[in-house]
Amino acid sequence: MASMSEELAEIDGQIADIFRALSNGFQKLEKIKDSNRQSRQLEELTGKMRECKRLIKEFDREVKDLEYKNDPDTNKMLNEKKQSMVKELNSYVALKKQYASNLDNKRVDLFEGPGEGLAEDNGLLASSMTNQQLMDNGNRMMDETDQAIERSKKVVNDTVNVGTETAAALKAQTEQMSRIVNELDSIHFSIKKASQLVKEIGRQVATDRCIMALLFLIVIGVVAVIIVKLVNPHNKNIPDIPGLAPPVQSRRLLWHPI
Question: Which residue numbers delimit the T-SNARE coiled-coil homology domain (predicted)?
Answer without folding.
Answer: 139-201
